C-alpha cells in the first residue's frame, strides 16, 4: 500500500497577486485575459469571485458579465513560478520523491515514511503551516493510496483543507460525490454519464467494469477503476526537458508582418533566456504560425548548437519569411527549441566580437535572473512591449 | 645519363623528405620528387607549397639534369628493396629505369619546368641583407617545439594562431603557441638577433621538423616570408604565416597571488582518472583548493558517475573552486612531465592560471597559461 500526498495551492495566482498587492485581500480577484479585448479565459479567481459563479477556464467575457466589479489582473507569471519554486523547495526537504503536476500542484510519495514523520495527518498540517508561515500561501492536501484519490482528497476540502482517505475506505469516500469529481471526466463524458442516469460516483460502482468498457471503451475502464478507489500508484519522476517553447495568441488577429516578426523577436528572447539559465544550447529551431482560419504552419531547421538570441532569431525569422506565404491574418505565433546539449563555458584569452557578445548575454541573463526578465530588453522588443502593457499593472509586465 | 646509389642510403633520404609530399592536392605535380642532378650531387626536393624539404647525396654523373619523379611509387620501390646498388638510367624519351642485380623497373618522369620554385638559402647576395642567420642546438629547438606545439590552434578562424611564434627580443628568443584557451611561452635566453623580430611558423613545419631535430646544431635562415632550418643532411624551408600574432603578453596576468605547489606525476595520474568521469562533451574537472589540499573531482550527470581525489599540496592562499577542461590539464601535465614540481598561480575562478616548473632550467623560462571553465553551481 502506498502513501501519496497531493498538495494543491489554493487560488495560487490570486494569492500571489495578493502578496504583491495586499490591497487585493478580501476582494473578488480574477487572474486571466483582459476583458476589454474580450477574448481568452479566467486562469484563476479568488474564492470571493467564485461566489459569483466564476471558475477557472470560464470565458473572460462571461466572467465580466457575472462579476463586473471584480478586479481583473493580467498576471505576473515570473512571480508565480518564483513562488512555485519556493514551495517545491520546502517540499523537497521532506518528500523522498516529488512529481510537479503543474505550477500549483505537487504529488509526493511518502510510502514507508510513517515511522519517520509520525501521524500522516499531523505531518500534512505541519507542511501546510510551513508553507503558510514562510510564503503566506494557502494550500490543501489530500492523502491517499494513489494519485487519483489523493487529488480528489485535496480538492474536496478547499481552501486550506487536509483530507486523509484511509486505505480501504476509498470506495465509501467517493460514493456520494458527483461523477465530475473524477479527474478526466469532461463535458462530453459527463453528458453521456448523465444520459445513462449516472450522477454519483457510487452509481458507477454499482455497475460492472465490463459494462463501462463496452459503453465508453478504454476510457470507461479507467473511469470504473477510479470510481472504485483505484488509480496510478507511482509518481512520474521528473523528466529532462526535451523542448522549450513560447507562443503568443494575439487579442485580435493581426496582419502586420512587421509586428509578427517583433513578437517572434520577443518570444525568442524569452526562450533563449530559459536555455541560458540551464546552460544549454539548442540545435533545432522551429516556428509556428496559426492563421485566423486555424490553418497552422510549422517549420524547423537544425543549426550549430547555440544560445544566442541573434542566431536563433535570424534562423526563426528566415523560416517565418519563407513559410508565411499566405495573405491571411495571423492568430498565433510561436517559437520552439529542441535538441539541447549542455555545454561548458571555457574562458578564453583573446576577446573577439563573439566572446564579447557572449559575455554580454551572460550578464543580461544574470541581471534578468535577479531583477526580472523585462529589466533588460533589446532595442527591437519595444514595439511589442508597448502593445502588451498591462492596463492594470502598467509598470509591470 | 646514368648514376648509381645505395638503396638503403636513398631510402633513408626519401623517408626524411616524403612528409612534404601532399597526399591530396589540386596540383598533381606536387605528388612528385624533384631530382636535381648538378655537379656530382643529387638533390631531391619535395614540397606542398607550404613546407619544402630537400636533401642531397653524392653521386657520380657526367651531366646536369632536372627531372620530376612520382614520389610514392619511387619511395615504395626503394623501401621494399634490401640493401643493394640501384642503377638509375634517365632516357631521353621520358623514362626512368631502375636496375638492381635481379630486377628492372621503369617509371615515367616529367620535365622539371612545371615544378614550383623553392626558395634557397642563404640566397643571392642582394637578398642576403634581408636574411637573418642564426645557429641553435637541435636539442634546444626540439625541447621548445615539444613543450609548445600542443597549444597551437587548429581552428582556421585565426590563422596567426595556427602556428608557433618565434619572437626575438631583448631577453632572447621566445617560442609562443596558443589556441585561445591555453598558451605556452618559452624563453630561451641569450638567443638573439640584431633587432627585435617576429616570425610565425606554421603548425605543419613544426610537427615535421620536430622529427628531424637531433643533438646537432641547426642553422636558421629567417627572411620576411620564409624560414629555413638547415640540418646536417636535410633542409626544411617553410613559408611563414603572414599575419599579426595576437598580443599575448597583454593577457598574461600579473596579479596571480595564490601559489600552489604540486607534484607533477601525482596530479597527472589523478587527472587521467578524472578524465574517465568527466562528461564527454564538457570534459570538466573541478579543482577545490584549500590550505595544503587540492581536491580534484569530476562527474557525468547523464551516466550518474563521479569521482574525486585529494592530493596534498603546498598552498596557503584563499580557498578557491576552479574548473578546467580535463583534456587541457592533461596536455599541460603531459608536456611538463619531466618537471618534478609545478607551481600553479591563481587569482580567481574565471581568470587565467599560470603554470610553471618550480625550478627553471638554466637560461630558460617556461610558462604555461590555462583558461578555466566556468563552474555552474
The CATH architecture of the largest domain in chain A can be named as 2-Layer Sandwich
With strands numbered from the N-terminus, the spatial order across the biggest sheet of chain B is 9-5-2-3-4-17-16-15-10
- SS elements, strand count of chain A: 12
- Biggest sheet of chain A: strands side by side, in what order? 5-6-1-7-8
Uncertain parts of chain A: 383-397
Q: Number of folding domains of chain A? A: 3
Tell how many strands the DSSP assignment of chain B holds.
26
* CATH H-level homologous superfamily name of the largest domain in chain A: Reverse transcriptase/Diguanylate cyclase domain
CATH topology of the largest domain in chain A: Alpha-Beta Plaits
Q: How do the helices and strands line up, and which of them pair or pack?
A:
The complex is a heterodimer of chains A (397) and B (377).
Chain A: E1 4-9, H1 12-20, E2 29-32, E3 42-45, H2 47-50, H3 60-66, E4 71-73, H4 77-94, E5 98-102, E6 105-109, H5 114-117, H6 120-135, E7 139-144, H7 147-156, E8 162-164, H8 170-174, H9 187-195, H10 201-205, H11 209-216, H12 218-227, E9 243-254, H13 257-277, E10 280-291, E11 296-306, H14 309-323, E12 330-342, H15 353-371, H16 382-387
Chain B: E1 2-6, H1 7-17, E2 32-38, E3 41-47, E4 51-58, E5 65-70, H2 71-80, E6 85-90, E7 95-99, E8 104-108, E9 110-111, H3 125-128, E10 132-137, H4 138-148, E11 163-168, E12 172-178, E13 182-189, E14 197-202, H5 203-210, E15 217-222, E16 226-230, E17 234-239, E18 258-263, H6 264-275, E19 284-290, E20 293-300, E21 305-312, E22 314-315, E23 320-325, H7 326-335, E24 341-346, E25 353-357, E26 364-370
Antiparallel strand pairs in B: 1-6, 2-3, 2-5, 3-4, 4-17, 5-9, 6-7, 7-8, 10-15, 11-12, 11-14, 12-13, 13-26, 15-16, 16-17, 18-22, 18-24, 19-20, 19-23, 20-21, 24-25, 25-26
Helix pairs in contact in B: 6-7
